[in-house]
Amino acid sequence: MKIFQMLDKAIMRLEEFILSFSVIVISIMTISNVIAREIFNSGFFYFHSEVSKFALVIATFMGIAYAARKGRHISMSAFYDFGSFKVRKAMMILIHFVTAIVMLVLAYFSLNYTISEFERGTVTPSLQLPQYLMVIWIPLGFFMAGIQFLRNMWINIRVKDKVYLGIDAEDYNDKENSEIAEEIRV
Q1: 89-102 pLDDT, tens digit each
Q2: What is the rounded CA–CA span in Å between residue 102 and residue 142?
Q3: What ranges do the domains of the chain cover?
């Protein structure tokens, strides 16, 4: 079990690094392009759009898995919030299961697309990089999100006295107002 915990922590750190790095790259490319274009009247960063697009795809699809881990994904919780503990527990198990299946199906289809991009040998317009290097992050993100949602489902099955939105996130309905206020401050 310790090996899995260490692996999980390493994957989480890698996800955090990838997400942070992607956002930083987007910022640097955008700001550099504006400075080059407006101040120096130069088109030196002709590739800024392409690099930003790469980083945006990476941040978006790797962010799905990270949001699932932290229980920070978008949810429509009107019915969920009014349910009893047992109803919320059952709904969370079902929601995580169905979402995991959808993510894994999307991973399959996007992997097929990535393979077709590889086989066609398409390249990006500016940098002439293989297109599959950008789209490989799509099935990877969907797959990791599917695994995270299965983990979220499993923790809800295993732990009987709490509802978890994510591995690292207990349901806010089960917390006292003072605990929620403390989390907001942190």
Answers
A1: 999 999 999 999 99
A2: 9
A3: 2-185
Q: What is the DSSP string of 73-87?
A: S----HHHHHS-HHH
pTM over 0.90: no
**Euclidean distance between CA atoms 120 and 137, whole angstroms:** 18
CA–CA separation, 8 and 2 (whole Å): 10
Give the CA distances from residue 110 to residues 3, 40, 61, 136, 137, in Å, rounded to whole numbers and listed in that order. Answer: 30, 41, 11, 8, 9
- Helix, coil or strand: residue 176: coil
Question: What are the helix (H) ranges across the chain?
Answer: 2-34, 48-70, 78-82, 85-120, 132-135, 137-158, 177-185
